[in-house]
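The protein record quoted for completeness.
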Amino acid sequence: MAKKAKKAGNKEEQELVAAPAANQAAKLPPKAKPKNAAERRQDRIDGIKKTVYPAVLGVLAGFACYHGAASINQLPWHFVMLSVILVTYLIQKYTYSFLKIDANAFKTKDWFYVEFMAFDLWLVTWTLLLN
């Protein structure tokens, strides 16, 4: 014998049960309209530029630190690291417009991504050149 499920006794209880589902649906962001082929291609090209440009900056910073090792040797390592991060950030911030990339639209996540690329390749390049 199957038990019958109880129904909510009054309208207030029914509204309370339905309210969380309605609020959750209201919190969802609107769906973005699908991109056409040209927009997808441009996004991919911009993504490649956002990856290659900081990588090149990081490699150049590694070579600069290697060739300036005599003057860098007297500085604390954390000062050199913070200087590289600051310089690569400022270079990227003001030169992305030449690459037709809107740097003003970057969010914190985007800046962490490009700075990590520059920092990582600076560190790898400098370490390889020192060995």
